[in-house]
Amino acid sequence: MPDIEGPTCAIHKGMPIIAECINCGRPICSACKDEFGYFCSHECLKASKSTVDHEAKIEFQKQMESTRKIIRTVSISLLGILALVIVAGFWWFLAWYFDKSGSMAWEWKKSISPSKFHYLKIESGRILFKSGPVVCAIDQKTGQAQVIAENKLLNDYNKLIQTTPDGALLAGEKSVIFLSYQGKILWRKDFKHPVSKYASDENHAVIITRQRFTKDEYTMMRVRNKFKTPETTMYGYQLSNGTEAWKKKLLETESIVSGISGGNGMFAYVISRRDKTGKKRDNYYYNPGKMTLEVAKFRNGLLRWRIQLKSYLSWGPYVCKDRVMFILNKRLAAVAKSGKVLWTLPGSPSPALKNGKLEVSGNRVLANNYQSVACIDIDKGEKLWSKKISFGMQMELWKDKVYYLTSVVRDDIKKEEKMKIPPTFEQLQDKDMSRTLNKLKNLRKYVSVIVCLDSSTGKELWRRKRIRGSIFPRDKFVVTVGDAGLGGMLSMIGGSKNPISIVSELETSNGKLQFKRKSPKALIGPFRIIDDMLIGLIYSKDNNSGGFSSFGRAIRAEGLIAIRLK
After folding, report:
1. Exposure winner among 369, 471, 481, 547, fewest CB in 10 A?
2. Is 78 exposed, middle or buried (0-12, 13-18, 19+ CB in 10 A)?
3. pLDDT tens-digit readout, 328-369
4. φ, ψ for residue 528 (rounded to 5)?
5. H runs (alpha helix) in 248-336
6. What contacts 493, CB < 8 A, 6 or more positions away?
7. What are the pLDDT tens digits along the chain (566 aa)?
8. Which residues fall within 8 angstroms of residue 256, CB to CB, at 6 or more apart?
9. CA distance 329 to 362
10. Is 83 helix (H, G, I), strand (E, B) or coil?
């Protein structure tokens, strides 16, 4: 490396130059200065003393020496700063280059129908899943897949009811099967009518079948003005061996008018009972009859308790721990396993309870109606807090935090800025599409934001802009998977043939962005986070492929992909 202080003294070898001789201008060093002053020799000193401006020359040389020192100090400082910048930039480049967060760990290419894909079990570093007629196991680290079993019958069972340590319960059109993780069908039950509803726990399952009338049968009933109630039957099975524990056929005047929820040895549902008067107005469609909330045992189907209802439930019933929760007449209620009402909470103080969606996690219930959110303590039956939000799209309750996506007005947009419309849209002349485009143009004024709240107090902990997609909370990080286009609809319908997904990861404590990268492949759910990897399906758009189609373009899954996380 060259010397930053310039040439050395000609008289004293190796000494740096600090000034110039007053008389002849020859460079001098500090040793020359101590011996001759600001001169290079005695001759120049004597010659300078004979001049009139000797003192002025000495003063000038002092100023020059001071200036040289300042220049030397500044030069050294600038070079030091430049070296630090280079080192920091190189370090950042190495960290970015070798940081594999957000990159693809592996991919497994195989044509998959998303509606027929189910994760079954994750064990010993392997991911077991069912894809149509095939049961596969894929190595979590390498992505090497192994076909465990292939059976054409499995292609008809695409509803996953329950997974247990021994296998998985799957429902088809008019039958259910219990599939082992080795790909063998341990038992199968066929029914007369299609499977309508189901609930299960780790040991038992309840299957409800309901008669489905044909179009001609509906026409005949309308002509005769005599409507029949579809035949409904409830079956109870043991998951271990498929033994039918009990069977209950509902009367002609009975029908189940709610979903069914189960857990902790019991299941809950709402049943309607009509009085059979024979009058024409008393038909299935216009007379719901008297409704009852019933809770029964999985083991034998016997009732634990029942509650007479005056109207339909707005939400529920939902079995949570050792209680049943539901919303009736804008009141959230919790009933114990014994039938005792533990508490009720009016919905008027919390608009989110009136017509919102409820999510249960741990000992808390989160209510969201897209304009307000409320959090309730299940054990105490107390509203912890409620808060108005501008627009809450997806909301997740995870341990002591609440995450939700909303939108805020952009502060960096210009009035004259126009939204670029994909060529596919420009070719469409449909009036409905024009209205949709106008709405999408208005959405251009907003930017998506992820917000984190304290589930105990509702206090906002942090927020971060330009984060979109689905939320997947973890212990230390929260992962989001979104589309890279302007909006999901634009990118899926009119964007390029190869859509792009963006994967982001933020710290749960402060919202610090760990990484935000474009995925090498477009992603579609269902997603699973396993250790430090995000597992999802690969999808692309093809005009000639089957499946879901939007304006002539269909979406199909092409396999599995694993994205590295922090």
Report:
1. 547
2. exposed
3. 888 888 999 888 999 988 765 455 665 566 788 878 888 877
4. -140, 140
5. none
6. 424, 425, 550, 551, 553
7. 344 445 678 777 778 887 778 778 788 888 887 777 777 877 787 776 665 465 666 666 667 677 777 887 888 888 889 989 988 888 877 766 667 788 888 999 888 888 889 999 988 789 999 988 999 999 988 889 888 999 999 999 999 999 998 999 999 999 999 999 999 999 999 999 999 999 998 899 999 999 988 888 878 887 777 777 789 999 999 998 999 999 999 988 888 988 899 988 999 999 988 766 544 444 444 456 788 999 999 999 999 999 998 888 888 899 988 899 988 888 888 999 888 999 988 765 455 665 566 788 878 888 877 778 888 888 888 888 888 877 666 778 888 888 887 766 665 544 444 445 555 444 444 555 556 555 555 555 667 888 899 988 889 999 888 887 888 888 889 999 887 654 443 433 444 455 678 899 999 999 999 888 888 888 888 899 988 899 999 876 553 444 444 444 456 788 899 998 88
8. 196, 197, 208, 210, 232, 250, 269, 270, 271, 272
9. 25
10. helix
Query: 351-383 burial by CB neighbour count: b if 16+ within 10 A, else e?
Result: bbbeebebebbeebbbbbbbebbbbbbbeebeb
Place of tokens 């970015």: 96
Retrieve residue 442's tokens: 């208005």
How far is 497 from 491, CA to CA, in rounded Å?
9
Q: How far apart are CA 530 and CA 138, in angstroms?
A: 13
Token couple for 221: 């009933």
Q: Are 126 and 141 in contact (CB under 8 A)?
A: no
CA dist 383 and 12 (Å) reads: 87
Tokens linked to 172:
């088809």
Buried b / exposed e over 190-214, threshold 16 CB at 10 Å, is ebebebbbbbbbeebbbbbbbeeee
DSSP characters over 425-448: HHT---HHHHHHHHHHHHHTTEEE
Which runs of E-coded beta strand occur in 221-330? 232-238, 244-249, 254-256, 261-263, 266-273, 290-297, 303-309, 315-320, 323-328
∠ Cα 150 153 155 (to 5°): 80
In the numeric block, which tokens belong to residue 286? 């216009």
**C-alpha to C-alpha distance for 375 and 235, rounded to whole angstroms:** 36
Scanning 213-347, the segments in alpha helix (DSSP H) are: 215-224
Dihedrals φ, ψ of 90, to 5°?
-65, -40
Distance between CA atoms of residues 499 and 484, nearest Å: 8
